[in-house]
C-alpha cells in the first residue's frame, strides 16, 4: 500500500503554472512550425547549441552534427529534431505578462465607488456624529488603499527577495 502525503495548495499552483508555461511554449512552436527561419534565428539557435556544448550536454561531434542540421533547416519545424533532448531554446520562450493599464482603470472605478461613502462620512463628521463618520469614512479609505496597492502590483509575492 502506497502512503500518500498531503499536497499543499502552493505546490499545486506551482505545478499548474509550470504546465501552463509548457503549453505556451508548445503553442508557440506549433504556430511557427511552417514559418521559414531567418539568419538571426539561426544565429540564436547556434548560440543555444554552443551554450549546451559549454555546459557539457553535447560533445564536439554531436555539436557539429546538430549545427550542420541547423544550417540545412528551412522552417521552425525542422528545429525540433535538432533540439531533441535539450532544453527549449530561448527563441520559443514566452515573455511573462506585465500588469496592464486596466488595473488603474479598475482602481479609478473603486475610487469612484468609495467617494460617496467618504463624503457621507465627512458630512456626519461636520455635524458631530463621529461614530457614523467612522462607519462610512474609514471603510471607504481602506477600500481605496487596498485598490491602490492592487493596481500598483505591490503584493506579498513581489516583495519577497
How would you describe this structure to a colleague?
- The protein has six helices and no strands.
- The chain has helices at residues 9-32, 39-55, 60-72, 102-126, 130-152, 156-159.
Poorly predicted tracts of residues: none
According to DSSP, the number of beta strands is 0
> Strand-and-helix sequence, N→C?
HHHHHH
The percent range for helix content is: 55-70%
End-to-end span in angstroms? 41 Å
How big is the Rg? 27 Å
Residue-averaged pLDDT: 81
Strand content: under 5%
Number of helices: 6
Protein traits:
6 helices; mainly alpha
SSE arrangement:
Elements: H1 9-32, H2 39-55, H3 60-72, H4 102-126, H5 130-152, H6 156-159
Overview in brief:
With 161 residues, the protein is mostly helical. The protein has helices at residues 9-32, 39-55, 60-72, 102-126, 130-152, 156-159.
Amino acid at each position: 500500500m502506497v502512503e500518500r502525503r498531503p499536497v499543499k495548495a502552493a505546490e499545486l499552483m506551482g505545478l499548474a503554472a509550470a504546465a501552463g508555461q509548457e503549453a505556451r511554449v508548445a503553442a508557440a512552436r506549433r504556430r511557427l512550425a511552417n514559418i521559414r527561419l531567418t539568419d538571426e534565428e539561426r544565429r540564436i539557435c547556434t548560440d543555444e547549441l554552443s551554450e549546451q556544448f559549454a555546459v557539457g550536454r553535447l560533445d564536439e561531434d554531436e555539436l557539429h552534427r546538430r549545427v550542420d542540421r541547423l544550417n540545412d533547416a528551412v522552417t521552425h519545424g525542422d528545429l525540433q529534431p535538432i533540439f531533441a533532448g535539450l532544453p527549449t531554446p530561448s527563441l520559443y520562450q514566452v515573455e511573462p505578462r506585465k500588469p496592464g493599464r486596466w488595473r488603474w482603470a479598475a482602481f479609478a472605478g473603486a475610487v469612484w465607488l468609495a467617494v460617496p461613502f467618504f463624503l457621507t462620512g465627512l458630512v456626519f463628521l461636520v455635524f458631530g456624529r463621529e461614530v457614523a463618520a467612522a462607519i462610512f469614512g474609514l471603510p471607504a479609505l481602506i477600500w481605496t488603499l487596498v485598490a491602490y496597492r492592487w493596481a500598483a502590483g505591490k503584493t506579498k509575492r513581489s516583495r519577497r527577495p
